[in-house]
Design a protein that fits this description.
The protein is of the alpha/beta class and 361 residues long. The chain has 9 helices and 14 strands. 34% of the residues lie in helices and 16% in strands. The two termini are 38 Å apart. The structure holds pyridoxal-5'-phosphate.
Length: 361
């Protein structure tokens, strides 16, 4: 057995070992076909059954209402930054965006090429340390939808509540938080997520879109970006990322075996609480995020003295704790602890942090 380390990478992120073992066991001969799942036609009965099963399993996990479509597309969450305005409005119009960090700013920048963006609220004034309360949002009646980023993967800022914006569609980039806990899908018009954080390998993007939001795209919209086309073709207008969908499907089944999202949420909450409590109690480490906005999935922290960062990271690596370096734009450290990260990894991390801080004095 090769040794698996604890990989705190923000994405592509660690996958459940059990899922990788199953994929390995099935790699050369999937379901007795004498071929891998990567090598069969996406139009075959076998793959068609696989993609429908993945959709069914995801629907069950999230309790997706019938009047929502689940779409498996490509291009990552970043492609959706453009596809969303173009599908929901065509060219022109206006939408409200809430700025909570780097990913919402990227969404704003891209959407601004196609419509007028009203930045309804920004965490800039608090140094991106707290999600702006909804009472401070300046929503514009002329806007067609409201876009939020429920978990800012880089900054470590998360909404621990769902905005209530009335009848307009709420659009959410859930790339790094979808499946971390139960979710009331009916509160959203559109949910999207790149898979490589909490769902599966990169190459797959998951969309959950309310029926009435389909069919508004401008005729010039590239076919491959058109949600209606994806929906009409069961997410197979062209060749889908078959292996990514297969692996995501195994992750959905793994989640079901853990007890579904209520059970995984309990574990995620415990994992995050434990790490935040340790950081808060330590004079050596700090986390800059307001307690009402702290991410369960991405936990940034700083050492008292940043000249020790390199030694901290090298020691962590040697202790089997990989990829704890913070994003280059914010520095410091970041522990990404998605569903696949076992609770034991948090204990190991805290043990290492404690040890390091004692030795550093
Ligand atoms: C990673 C990430 C993205 C970018 O995803 P890609 O699939 O690489 O385009 C966008 N938004 C959030 C919140 C992310 O975490």
């Amino acid at each position: 057995m090769t040794q698996r380390i604890y990989n705190f990478c923000s994405g592509p992120a660690a996958l459940p070992t059990e899922v990788l073992e199953q994929a390995r066991a099935e790699l050369l001969d999937w379901r007795g076909l004498g071929m891998s799942v990567m090598e069969i036609s996406h139009r075959s009965d076998e793959f068609t059954a696989l993609i429908r099963q993945a959709e069914t399993d995801l629907r069950r996990l999230l309790d997706v209402p019938d009047h929502y479509r689940v779409l498996f597309v490509q291009g990552g969450a970043s492609t959706q930054f453009a596809a969303i305005p173009l599908n929901l409005l065509g060219l022109g119009g206006q939408a409200d965006y809430v700025d909570t960090g780097i990913w919402s700013r990227k969404a704003i920048e891209e959407a601004s090429r196609y419509l007028k963006v009203n930045v309804a609220a920004s965490a800039k004034s608090n140094g991106y340390s707290q999600v702006p309360a909804q009472s401070e949002w300046q929503l514009d009646p002329a806007s067609a939808y409201v876009h939020v980023t429920p978990n800012e993967t880089i900054g470590g800022l998360e909404y621990l509540w769902t905005p209530d914006i009335g009848t307009k569609p709420l659009v959410a980039d859930m790339s790094s938080t979808l499946l971390s806990r139960p979710l009331d899908v009916s509160r959203f018009g559109l949910i999207y997520a790149g898979a490589q954080k909490n769902i599966g390998p990169s190459g797959l993007t998951v969309l959950i879109v309310r029926d009435d939001l389909l069919g508004h795209a401008s005729p010039q919209l590239p076919t491959m970006l058109n949600y209606q086309v994806a929906a009409d073709n069961g997410s197979m207008y062209n060749t889908p990322p078959t292996f990514s969908i297969y692996l995501a499907g195994l992750v959905f089944q793994w989640l079901e075996r853990q007890g579904g999202l209520p059970a995984i949420a309990e574990i995620n909450r415990r994992k995050a609480d434990k790490l935040y409590q340790y950081i808060d109690a330590s004079p050596f480490y700090s986390n800059p995020i307001h307690p009402d906005s702290r991410s369960w999935m991405n936990i940034p922290f700083r050492l008292r003295d940043e000249s020790l960062d390199k030694a901290f990271l090298a020691g962590a690596e040697a202790a089997g704790l990989a990829n704890l370096q913070g994003h280059r734009s914010v520095g410091g450290m970041r522990a990404s602890i998605y569903n696949a990260m076992p609770e034991a990894a948090i204990d190991r991390l805290i043990e290492y942090m404690d040890d390091f801080s004692r030795k550093a004095g």
